[in-house]
Amino acid sequence: MDERTANRPRGRRGPAPGTSRGPRLPRAEREAQLIQVAEEIFSVHGYHGTTMEAVAEAASVTKPVIYDLFGSKDGLLAACLAKTRAELFALLREAWRGLTVNDLEAGFRIGILTFFRFIDTHAALWHLIAVEGPSSPGAYETMQETRLLHAREIAATFNSLPSLSKIPPVFVEGLSEGVIGACERVAAWRSTRPDVTAEFATELVMMMTWHGMSQFVEQFTASP
């Protein structure tokens, strides 16, 4: 018996005892409401400590509503991570808006700083992903997809600059993967070092990535 079947109430689809049903909302609004409620509960109690009953009660809905929308607790966590990813990508695109090759280093730095500051505002959820994420198939798949899309975002930023068009795509892809790996490892390390600021973490990643990448970029952008 899977989680969805095992946790469905039997012979009853009304609100849980002692609770009242919330107002009927359009599907998209209900999904957004449940994701917001679930993110708060996941952040406090972790993946294993969060129950569908707790999410349902906090949102004033029945468990079948959540199962119908997300399929399982795993699916609900994946939806939370997808929402968080969309917010991060929107901030990165804004940080890189109007970027030119002349301010590539500054743009690279602000992109990394944006990542670390974003992690700071979602510290509990980041810890959940780093510590418990691998035990949740949905969360693991969502994080793998996030890494892929994040690499594509960085590569797209490089590729959007005409002066960098000479750089072979395979190099851009590889460099993007390396930057993401460095950011994630430093972010995981920072979770055990609250004294390390986002700015200091940014400079660490710049030392590990940009100062070598800049020479590589110059090789392909130098005038013939």
From TrEMBL:
Gene3D superfamilies: Tetracycline Repressor, domain 2 (1.10.357.10). Residues 1-27 are annotated as: Disordered. Residues 51-70 bind DNA. The keyword Amino-acid biosynthesis does not apply. InterPro entries: Homeodomain-like_sf, HTH-type_TetR-like_transc_reg, HTH_TetR, Tet_transcr_reg_TetR-rel_C_sf. Pfam families: TetR_N. The keyword Membrane does not apply. Keywords: DNA-binding. Residues 14-23 have a biased composition (Low complexity). Residues 28-88 form the HTH tetR-type domain. Coiled coil: none annotated. This is TetR/AcrR family transcriptional regulator. It comes from Nostocoides vanveenii.
